[in-house]
Model the fold of this input.
Amino acid sequence: MPMLIDPFALLGLPRRPMIDQDLLKKNLRSLVLQCHPDHRTGDTKMFEEIQEASNLLRSTPARLRNLAGEIRITKSIPRAAQELFESTNKALENAANLTNKYHGSTLALLKALLIKELLLARRKLINVQESLHHWHRSLEEELNAIDLRWPNVRSEELMLLSQSFLFAQRWDDQLREAVLKINLISPKNSS
Amino acid sequence: MIDHKLNTRGIEPQGPIVGIDLGTTNSLIGIYDGGFSIIFANSEGSRLTPSVVSYSEELAPLIGHVAERQALLYPEKTIISVKRLMGQRIGDPQCAGRNHLYGKSGDPLKIKLGDKLVTPEEVSAEILKELKSIAEERLGVSVSRAIITVPAYFNDAQRQATRRAGELAGFCVERIISEPTAAALAYGLDKLKDQSKIAVYDFGGGTFDLSILKLDHGLFEVLSTCGDTNLGGDTMDQALMELLLGKLALKNSLDLKSLTRLHQIVRSAKEELSYNEEIILRLPFLHHRASEEVTLTRRELEDIALPIIERTRSLCLRALADAELEAQDLDEVILVGGATRMPVVRSFVEQLFCKPPNLTQHPDEAVVMGALLQGAILQGNLENLTLLDITPLSLGIETFGGLMNVIIPRNTTIPTKAGELFTNARTDQNKMKITLLQGERELAKDNWKLGELELSFTPARKGEARVGVQFSIDANGILEVLARDITSGEEKIIELAHAIDVSDEAVEAMISDSLEHAFEDRDARLFTEAKLQAEEMLPAVENALRELHSLLSSDMQNALRARMDDVRLALKQEELTSLKKGLQELDQATQGLATLLVEKAMHELD
Done:
């Protein structure tokens, strides 16, 4: 069920691609203090709406989608990121295989034999993460450019950028998760 | 049962709100009054009331210290650590090793005490009633409103069961709050001007939680939480019991009465070893034997405790990652829960978070202090304090292919709501079943099944009947489901058929599987297990020898090869005893190799 209220208006922010994060925090804080159900001025429904709106605004893909007026999420991968997608997948798969193998073996010796490969897998993950961050920076620049042109922006542009951000974030989450899983096995070394 | 809805701002029961810590081992009750936090002492003068209940045929149940003494005489009628059973089904992991349980696998859990059959909620209600009367006696007025604390990682079923226990005890449960959050509230009360990030490491009798919070001028925001509802001081008691039984060569031969007595001895031994390096246990007449003395050292306890404490590491790292913080970003790590008295826990936390833990909070009392402060907030007596808690577990539904589709992710600020639209898959389909799940695993079956929802569609062509379902998690972390028929505009609150109330075939299958194994020839099975282990071990040692060739003396390599030959010979002769002995020796001889391998890998990749 989509939001009916304009999340930008609810949190007192101008309706445009870039938002002032500090202002969002400040306005959210005062609204939360006012609406939290524990207080006399409390209003659970309002509180939930504020949380939903701030979650939407904080997420760049959701924010751009809202500006484009789209609800649907298309699932195809942006052409520019095809190569990155493949290397991300490979690194993730390799890491998942090794971590599963590690947890599946019962002997300390077998586990120890896997450490070297695991450390290599982590190095690969971190390399992919770096190229992903590089892509993410170029997306930020694009967002900046779109914001300067606002409101002269087509909704297809917004949707494409929204989607790129969505994939960048999802892959980053998955990579971070995979690195964390290896870190849980082997304490961090200076990599 | 008192019938009311939480958080309704209409007519509410009158009177003060008390705070209750309903613990695995001990429970406490208190109130915030006139600017002071007060924890009430029971009739024995203690603020801790043991969470022990003893039933008898004629009299009302006994609770607390007196029940603890009854446990020695009538262990079959006395129950401890009932909190671990809240919201569980027969066959769930928490039931392992428990006495008194009754029912078919997958059934809601019942406890058999003497000739009485009770539920975990009813037992908890007895403890709550006792606490209620302690508060009423001290205050001189009747008390009917309460805040009750639960482990942060409690799921919906466990929270519901706790609320039900409160209602059975005659309370209007104003709020269920998380224990580490409560402890943070107690810690932060005199730091309202500050801005800081803290972690609460809560290691109690039965559960472990780690919560990370941001304190910002009176706004307490929980950023992430992670935990294990089956990990605590209890776990260490069990391991210590086994060590002691081994020392006394008494394995499997003690009756319930002696076991109960030994358990109490073990518990106080564990506590004493936090202050002494070595103690002598006097064991009176266990199992018709003369009384005897056993020495126990702190070192022995720590060897047992460390692997258990180690299990908290990944949970802490997960919570940090979820909060997008590093250990160095935290201003304080606050310890609460009885198990954090152990020096070995304190040094573990110090090493993990790279700073000495904050010991300003009373390990047993911080949680109830927070609960009574929350009571004061709800009554409007602490206006400058606001608590923003989160839901610890992701809420989702089962999709095609048995996957979990997350609807509300873990660590979302509560209260919260999320919607999902369902359409009919074929013309004139009038019903649809949805399975609700809680947990973090990808496969639906690996998560906790909350229950099933049945949606009804108005008759329509395929894809045209639509029902919107709204899932809300309230400030107690408890779920409510509202369905709206888009076509007719009709709304209704759906009762969740709780998984706890229906039997679960999967659990039953698991149990019968394990029973089948029991009938197999034990020795044959043991040999097969040992053989598999040997087949895994021998090539691993070969690999390790190859990797470490230049680092090991030839004497050492020869010694290892000799151990391997022993194992190979035993395999050939199909000799169980010598195979087990050989494997054990090989395992011991290769222990250093594992460390060497890890060091070598780290060194090479640095």
Summary: The two ends of chain B are 65 Å apart (CA to CA).
